[in-house]
Write a structure and sequence with these properties.
Layout lengths: L10 H16 L5 H16 L17 H8 L6 H19 L8 H11 L4 H11 L4 H23 L9 H11 L10 H24 L14 H19 L11 H8 L19 H16 L6
Helix pairs in contact: 1-2, 1-3, 1-4, 5-6, 5-10, 6-7, 6-10, 7-8, 7-9, 7-10, 7-11, 8-9, 9-10, 9-12, 10-12
């Protein structure tokens, strides 16, 4: 029998496997292995809130390949039109999984976060970007989880004690101070203002999650977030996460290079003597400017319709 270990691991290849067994059944094939693959992958993609809505519309109503055959045989009498019908129906799901709906910076963020912590931080990031378009509530929740996880991983690596149940702004403030990027630690007015804006963004993401995400129940008249609000929250959270974990991202390099390199599993440049030089700010500043224009939209539910 076609067993689970023999199935491909990558989501795109798993989606193609589901598509292929359906094509096989639509063109006269389909055995026990195909029936197993269809049932397994159909359930997997349906249960994922990011991919369920992108499945062909007939998949949720066809519980097995026999029902697929009952649906597809009436679409066209010949094989080629049936295959074309299935391929076109799978295009939205495959486009999503191949990154057609992802932002240009997603790959860079993914590379940095998977190097830093593949099982914790990168897992939170992956869930956040998967939910941006089709599950705004869940995406906002994961944006906060991403920042919380990054802060805790950094503090753990540096041996800094913290309250595991602390609110996100408190965790971020502690991590920022440990990394020497707290506003009060900056000697330059511009950097002090930018670091203060970062803290404001973190506070607003926490508030957004408390008010608008699926982390808490909502009353009948409560505002509901849209995809654009979820995308803003996830993009801002990823920019801040990237700023904290990237080597050389601090305004003034702190004496914690060894601790961070241990977590990131790569060497960082030797910390520069404080006051003698500064390392560059990352390009996240351009993204951060979004917050200065959109802060009202994040802080209050009233603009959301």
């Amino acid at each position: 029998m076609f067993s689970e270990p023999e199935l491909p691991k990558h989501p795109v290849e798993r989606a193609q496997a589901l598509q292929n067994v359906m094509v096989s059944r639509a063109t006269g094939g389909g055995g026990n292995d195909d029936a197993y693959v269809y049932a397994l992958l159909r359930r997997e993609f349906m249960e994922n809130p990011a991919t369920g809505p992108l499945l062909p519309s007939f998949v949720p109503t066809c519980r097995d390949l026999n029902q697929i055959w009952g649906h597809i045989k009436d679409i066209a009498p010949k094989y080629d039109p049936r295959k074309k019908y299935i391929y076109e129906a799978f295009a939205p799901l495959l486009d999503h999984l191949e990154g057609a709906n992802r932002a240009p910076a997603d790959a860079d963020v993914s590379d940095a976060l998977v190097s830093f912590d593949p099982e914790g931080v990168h897992a939170a990031w992956t869930k956040a970007i998967e939910r941006r378009k089709n599950d705004p509530d869940g995406a906002i929740t994961m944006a906060r989880t991403l920042l919380e996880t990054v802060c805790k991983r950094i503090l753990d690596a540096m041996g800094v004690k913290y309250d595991d149940g602390a609110e996100l702004p408190t965790l971020y403030g502690t991590a920022a101070k440990a990394l020497n990027v707290a506003p009060s630690q900056q000697t330059d007015d511009m950097f002090r203002a930018i670091m203060g804006a970062c803290h404001t963004v973190v506070d607003r993401i926490g508030s957004m999650r408390n008010k608008l995400s699926d982390a808490h129940g909502r009353g009948a008249g409560a505002a509901k977030p849209e995809a654009r609000h979820a995308e803003l929250a996830v993009n801002l959270a990823s920019s801040l996460a990237l700023f904290l974990v990237q080597p050389g991202s601090q305004c003034e390099a702190p004496p914690v290079s060894y601790a961070l390199s241990k977590v990131a599993q790569r060497s960082l440049p030797q910390a520069l003597p404080r006051g003698q030089n500064r390392l560059r700010l990352p390009d996240f500043v351009g993204r951060l400017q979004i917050v200065l224009r959109c802060e009202t939209d994040i802080a209050s539910a009233s603009p959301i319709r």
